[in-house]
Amino acid sequence: MAAAEGPVKGPTPRRVRKYAAKCLGLKSYLRSPGDGRAQARIPAAALLWALLMGALLRRAAFAGIEALVGSRARRALGVSQSFGDDALRYFTERLSPAPTRAALASVLRRAKRNKAFEGCHFVGLALDGTTAGRRRESPCRLCRPYHNAAREVVGYRHHLVLAAVLGADLTLPLDVEPYGPGDSEYAAGQRLLRRVRASVGARFIDDVVVDGEFATAPFLHAATEVGWRVVARLKDNLPDLFQAAQWRFRSQAPHLSFREGFDRVELWDADDFDPWESLGWETVRVIRYRQHHRNGDVVEAYWLTDFPSRHLSSRCLYAMAKSRWQIENQGFNDAKNRYGLEHICDHHPYSLLIVWLLTCLALTLERLYRLRYLHRGTHPARTAIDLLLLFQLSLSAPTLADSS
Description:
- It is a single chain.
- By secondary structure, this protein is of the alpha+beta class.
- It has helices at about 15-25, 25-30, 45-55, 60-70, 75, 85-90, 95-115, 185-200, 215-225, 240-250, 315-320, 325-335, 350-375, 385-395, and strands at about 125-135, 145, 155-165, 170-180, 205-210, 230-235, 255-260, 265-275, 285-290, 300-305.
- Strands 1, 2, 3, 4, 5, 6, 7, 8, 9 and 10 form a ten-stranded mixed sheet that branches.
- Residues about 1-5 and about 400-404 have low confidence and may be disordered.
């Protein structure tokens, strides 16, 4: 992300904030993030940075952030004053999501201009749905009930669709769209798709990769309307097309075979399948791959797309399809297991959305800082846990007064 080569000082919260403000262009956002409080006594900048550092330090709970800013580490964190978890609840319930979404889009656009995806043939957008945060009672308007085997309501959980940009070694969360009762994953996905198109522009993305739940005519048409081609998992929710592809490919030898690491991959590809009745495409292209692992396991999957074979090779289409696992592994798994996406800090719909968006911003900030800014030169990239340990060590070091 940085143009100049040279030694990089060790990472600290204050240096991360300087990087975010100057290199990523977030100075205005960090100062004025869309605070909706009237007559606020605690600066929005202090609360926002505490929330972002709480995510980077993997202290998801508001009580954990309160403990951080109430400790001797507060100055090293770069937070101007201490406050309680009730201040964080009040702040997040009134913080507009629009500036944070705009900040995320701005960071991604700047990252692409600064060649963060250099060497990557295609920059993709992955969309997928997940659940975050469960409650047994007291549902908010975003809560959707879940049932036991007897169809009895046993609790409530929150559902959202995440959009992440995929390119080179980066998976950068960009936006989320929650959906409550009476809504659906693919309807939320359409809203998210259109908003991402408006925020980053049509030329930013080369392809949209999604799981089979989004392989519906309305979603595919929405992608066509915004100017993006789709690579979607083909499953038995489209029985006619799925069976036609199975029947044809299973009677043919592989069209292409190659090695991927220790695995052997067989690939089938045809672009003349008939679309289902509600899909307004002329034809549908389908690939099938069988990935043979060293231990004897075989992974098979079918994918559909509107990419013409004359514009995109079978091998590139296979790589796009496989990239969907990045949002699963580096999106949901990281966000839930390391950054507390499933933790409910404040069971309020506005607060939930803001915390999810700030988690996305923290992940994107951490990855650009660690894999691009700190990785200048020939040394290997730091791991996420290495960066976390360096942050923690910096909080225990004495902080000198900054006269700048």
